Amino acid sequence: MLTALGSDRSSRVQWSGTYPALVFAVIFVFIFLLHLPLLQLPYFWDEAGYYVPAARDLLLTGSLIPHSTVSNAHPPLVMAWLALWWKVVGYAPLVTRTAMLVLAAFSLLGVFRLAERVSNTKVAIAATLCTALYPVFFAQSSLAQVDLAAAGLTFWALSAYVEGQTIPTVLWFALAALAKETAILAPLALAGWEIVGLLARTHSPRNLWLDGDGRDSNSSPVRRIASLLVPALPLVLWYAYHFARTGYVFGNPEFLRYNVAATLSSTRFLLALTMRLWQVVGYLHLWVLTLTMLLAMWMLPPQRDSASERSRIGIPVQMIFYVLVLTYVVAMALIGGAVLARYMLPAVPLVIIVSVSTLWRRLSFWPAAVACVALAFVMAWFWNPHYGFSPEDNLAYRDYVALHEDGERFLEARYPMARVLTAWPASDEITRPWLGYTTRPMRVVRIENFSLEEILSAAEFRRNYEVALIFSTKYEPGPAPWDRWRAWTELKTRFFGFHRDLPPAAVAKILAGHIVFSEQRQGQWVAVIEMERVEVACRLPLSWGWLPGGHGSPCEPGLANVCRSSRQ
User: What is the mean pLDDT of residues 152-160?
Assistant: First the structure.
């Protein structure tokens, strides 16, 4: 597969331009088959909490502003894409995930096109394969979220930009920003880089900037800068519309506080910056590729083909890649309450392209090296690291969904009328049957999480619920050496919302209940706890006298079928 489609940049055939439909079809079939066991899973986490409800509101009411969930001011392009598929094909997880795989295949075609333009077809095939198999990209490919689509449109825009195609550059960057607002970082960063190039024309080497070299002859620096600023206009119009409809611009106040106001701390920025750097060079076996690339650069000279050595990616293009990677690392360390790896999807494939190109240039056995990297990525689908990570970054999300399906089906079958103590997102899963977990809505008493503080608070009003659905709200690999440092735990709690979920046995003891269902998979768990009712004596008709739990007793609705005797 690594050598089947071409030779080098000078080849007559540019597969992404000559046969784009064929390349797209190959990519789509490949990733569709890989995701086949996942296509009917119910919706997971942020899918269930925002994106699917927002798209469903658009389908049912035609409103670009969601009303069944609080608006986060995300532009509506991806939600409109899902609503269109549901309108034409029907509402089902299979339809949703297939629609997202179409976007993932288009994004990978963008990676292929970009890599082919800046290097050659062999590198393009290998980089596209590695990107498709990288755990975060793979997991996000079928999830109904917006980051991957925004990244894919950014790759298409970059391909047009390095070729000097002004109108396609404007179009693709504008669409990327309408997929997710943070995609505007790419054109703004490139505009800044072009401005630096203009100002430094006489003070620095010009070979750091794109200037001619196969680009459109009409592509002057001023025109390029304009083409990079224009894509902000549709996003500005969207925010104006959002303000007119809701009264706020950048999402509801709590969303803005969590993602911007609460992140403006120098200490948090430095911690988040370290995490972001790790996510673009080492996260989930990415270090296998980047470390191999660095060793090859340090130890081996370029390989020679015929009479010349293999060429590197041009320095101006590499500078563009580095500017974008640095921009996303810094910006996503500065904003965003959750330091999620999917926010770095526009940057990681650029690192992959440069790394694969280096392997091709310096290793005679580079296909074997790429195959080892691909194998390491596939292993990371199933292997959870020894550090905390988000389940949406590999197939841990499948374990989460399977656990919640089992727990919530048990809950609905045994306690259909009960009031359930639980936390988000399970609170949405059991109150919205269209998310795929239950067949009818259940009543919910909601808490924030299952930390000691929240459970102690819930114990004070245990009369308000009859059963508790508890689950691991984050993946915990077990105490790491640095977790013994109290200062580190305090920093995580202060800046990143860290907490420890109590185990089911401890929750059951505090709530005075007993576990009736439990299940666990690779560090994640779910449990159902039935409350033991206390002080429930029912007064019967005088002829019956005082008896606990006789027929016709005026017991509190929703409790067990028979009243239980008082027990302190």
Answer: 97
